[in-house]
From TrEMBL:
The chain holds residues 128 to 295 of 342 of the full protein. Signal peptide: none annotated. Belongs to the small GTPase superfamily. RGK family. Keywords: Phosphoprotein. This is Uncharacterized protein. GO terms for cellular component: plasma membrane. GO terms for molecular function: calcium channel regulator activity; GTP binding; GTPase activity.
Length: 168
């Protein structure tokens, strides 16, 4: 449908160095992205999905802090590196905190980044997937460097936000 696109805010969280900026940069140059100089900020991406446009604003957050409430947030993207076990534990803590303490029912994505570092993998895919499903979250493996599955993640975020807002 035409008309004003929906505007969604996505908070990207995770340890320093896991590839949050790299992922956001890939979103900005995604095939789906048709945004131009009209976009509201540097981290706003226009996504065309099912003939409907959505504007996603990707917000960074201090790497060592947890958000206290989820006002104005439509989805969370929790990023870790498959090559760094500690970043997975941190993402787990964020997940538990968001569901149990913030009590958010927003969409959460657990994103295993740096899948190109195959030989350095320290986080098992099934283990991470189980964690995500335990917390009613989606699990995606990406490589921001190779632009692998980054478009899937972007489309998945829009799909999940729309499902939450319009469950029928
Ligand atoms: P941030 O601190 O979470 O924003 O992490 P950055 O996006 O700044 O990335 C930290 C480092 O990891 C940089 O050197 C990136 O080039 C690198 N990096 C990001 N994504 C990937 C990836 O998918 N694979 C590999 N091998 N390196 C990555």
């Amino acid at each position: 449908s035409s008309g004003t696109p929906s505007y969604y805010r996505v908070l990207v969280l995770g340890s320093s160095g896991v590839g949050k900026s790299a992922l956001i940069n890939q979103f900005m140059s995604s095939e789906n992205n048709i945004s131009d100089e009209m976009s509201a900020s540097d981290s706003t991406v226009s996504v065309m999905l099912d003939e409907e446009e959505s504007l996603l604003e990707f917000c960074n957050f201090p790497d060592d802090q947890f958000p206290e409430e989820d006002i104005n947030v439509d989805a969370y993207v929790l990023v870790f590196s498959i090559a760094d076990r500690a970043t997975y534990e941190y993402a787990n803590n964020l997940m538990r905190y968001l569901r149990n303490d913030v009590c958010t029912d927003r969409s959460i994505f657990l994103v295993a980044n740096k899948t190109d570092l195959v030989r350095k993998r320290t986080v098992d895919k099934n283990e991470a997937r189980l964690c995500a499903s335990y917390y009613s979250s989606k699990y995606v493996e990406t490589s921001a460097s190779l632009n692998h599955h980054v478009d899937n993640l972007l489309a998945g975020i829009v799909t999940q936000i729309r499902l939450k807002l319009n469950p029928d």
